[in-house]
Specification:
The chain has 410 residues and is α/β, with parallel strands linked by helices. The protein has 15 helices and 15 strands. Helices cover 46% and strands 17% of the residues. Helix 1 packs across helix 2, helix 4 packs across helix 6 and helix 6 packs parallel to helix 7. The structure holds iron/sulfur cluster.
Length: 410
Amino acid sequence: MTAPTPFSRRSTRQIHVGSVAVGGGAPITVQSMTTTKTADVEGTLQQIYALAAAGCDIVRCTCNEPEAAEGLAQIVPRSPIPVIADIHHQYKMALAALDAGVHGLRLNPGNIRRPEHIKAVASECRARNVPIRIGVNGGSLDPALYDKYGGITADAMVESALQEIAYFDEVGFDLVKISVKASNVPLMVEAYRKLSLVTDYPLHLGVTEAGPPPAGLVKATAGIAALLLEGIGDTIRYSLTADPVEEARAGRQLLEALGLRERKNVDLIACPSCGRAEVDVIDVAKRAQDAFADRQLPLQIAVMGCVVNGPGEAREADLGIAAGNKRGHLFVKGINVAVVPESEMVDALVEWAEFINEHGTDAAIARADVAKAEREARLDRTKLLDDKGADANHAQERIVEIRKRVASDS
Ligand code: SF4
């Protein structure tokens, strides 16, 4: 298991969305949003359960009509994770969502602009101890700020957030987190950097309308990861044009990859394949990825294309498999533990991974006939080297030629 990498993080106040802490040194959380009609209680809950299983910590549902608020009244008590109501134009929907018992609100300051409405919602939230996210969005910026700044700029988005905070201050409300999202990555990064200098409220990171994967994943990761690596950000959301489960998975995977959350799922490492590969590495890696997708095993597992270099290159993995001579060589922490037929490679990985997860790597090595596995592995390696040579890419031959040429030119 890879040790978490500690990044120094900007210090922020802490708020609670239901039972989940955000900011103030709490683990960075993953958020997503349901795509069902909120009035469809069973459909929405089904999606929320799938999101929670994929690593989502806090879920948001739209509250855009009275039926949605009524749906929330039934969803909130049955949800496994805290529920935030997303409010755009109608402040009364915010009040209705609070009546439904939601754990948080998201208000878009560009869409609810009358101060008395904003303050009415904040007062009610204060009375109920419910936090609000000020969700500034470049695409729906207050027109007055758009005109003042001559377009959507980082300063305009920051000012929008600060204006909202000023209204909250007037009614003594401070259970706040803020987002300043834009679909343009450099703009979004600049806005969050500027915001982090003028407030210590926790920040919710996201690249809005990032689009479908894979380009949407790349965009969202570029913006969110850049800020997290600077210590900015307390909770994140990938806004993908995709099943929201993909958003939750991506968020969770990013935090695990950066060492910002404990590993909960398999970290699958796989070689990029090359001319030495003894199997279709892409296919085996994909099958392994599918096999581990719904298994919560906090292990690093390697899929390597050849037994000549693979085990050495993936020595640090908890468990790995390398292909060679129509067989898969399993290794635990770099030690050969078994050799299985090529067709059983993925099944064997799953069986060993589950054993390691339950009993540990030492027990896995202890149960193996290491001497036999090493003997068979050595035979395969020797045969491959005899067939193909240690230098399958003919690099040494080329180096000899280069040296000859350089010597003859001098
Ligand atoms: S492990 Fe083997 S097949 Fe994979 S990239 Fe390395 S040398 Fe090539």
